[in-house]
Specification:
- The chain is 30% helix and 36% strand.
- By secondary structure, the protein is α+β, with helices and mostly antiparallel strands.
- 11% of the residues are buried.
Length: 101
């Protein structure tokens, strides 16, 4: 069974590019390590400071929790944000070539 989590937050204007750099490092490590059991996407919204992460985790353990780049991304997230991360479980009700349903 899979679990889908959506996380949304807003960074300070001067921290948005650094936040994106840290996110890109997470994706680089995921590409290098190739952990199974995870589908993951991050979006930077048009305002330039709001980020949305969508993770679909298969199984009990989220592979993100085992990556050094994700730990580094999380390390000072509170300092980069004006609105802290809010996570919510989600249920997929439909997708078109985005996530398997």
């Amino acid at each position: 069974m899979s679990t889908t989590v959506v996380v949304r937050y807003t960074t300070r204007v001067d921290a948005a590019d650094e936040n994106q750099r840290l996110v890109e490092e997470v994706f680089a490590q995921l590409a290098a390590d190739g952990p199974g059991g995870l589908r993951y996407a991050t979006f930077r919204l048009a305002d330039g400071v709001t980020f949305v992460h969508i993770a679909v985790v298969e199984g009990e353990v989220n592979p993100l929790s085992r990556t050094a780049a994700f730990a580094e991304f999380q390390r000072e997230i509170g300092d980069r944000c004006v609105d802290p991360p809010v996570a919510a479980d989600a249920t997929l009700i439909g997708s078109y070539r985005f996530l398997p349903g």
